[in-house]
Amino acid sequence: MNLLIIGAGQYGMVVREIAQATGRFDKIDFLDDNNAVAIDSTNNISKWVSEYKIAIVAIGKADVREKYLTLLKQCGYELATIIHPDAYISPTATIGSGCVIEPKAVIHTDVRIGDGCFISAGAVVNHNSVVEDTCHINCGAIIASGVIVPKGIKVDYGLVFTGEK
To answer: How do residues 46-86 score in pLDDT, each as one tens digit?
Structure first.
């Protein structure tokens, strides 16, 4: 099984390492417009679907990530969700497609993670919370129980998101 990662920048390298840690993929490559490690540019996404049936977007900006997630689906790719083996995922949690869950992240009871989300190392999404599509919960951030994180929001390093202003 081969994985195609859109974005070969710093986060793309993180996603590759997490994908390698899962042991699920035989071959992992990148598409990127500005990085020599990539096998091609993002302009040619559709040409690779027969060789890489599974893809993920490793781009930080939520709106750009959403654009590529949509394009990948339109081209016929299955969107990967990559979960590091050292993350804790409650059996009652649901995680959307195109997500990355880094090591030591905790996704608790009855949590719902939308599509295209990044849950970084050491982040905690407490019980009965919802993280909507294309959010990024950065390293060490905490999502309080029972809150909704709106679409496209980034909760930065070490912050506690309670849903209040």
So the answer is: 999 999 999 999 999 999 999 999 999 999 999 999 999 99
Q: Over the stretch 108-160, which tens digit does the pLDDT of each residue have?
A: 999 999 999 999 999 999 999 999 999 999 999 999 999 999 999 999 999 99
Decide: 63 and 80 in contact? Cβ < 8 Å.
no
The sign one gets for the Cα dihedral 148, 152, 153, 157 is positive
Residue for token pair 């949690």: 93
Q: From CA 126, how far away is CA 69, in angstroms rounded?
A: 26
Give me the residue label for tokens 């919802």: 130
Contact 54, 2 (CB under 8 A): yes
Helix (H) or strand (E) holding 79: strand 78-79
Rg (CA), the chain: 15
Please count the other Cβ atoms lying within 10 Å of the Cβ belonging to residue 36: 6
Dist CA 85 CA 108 (whole Å): 16
- The pTM score is 0.95
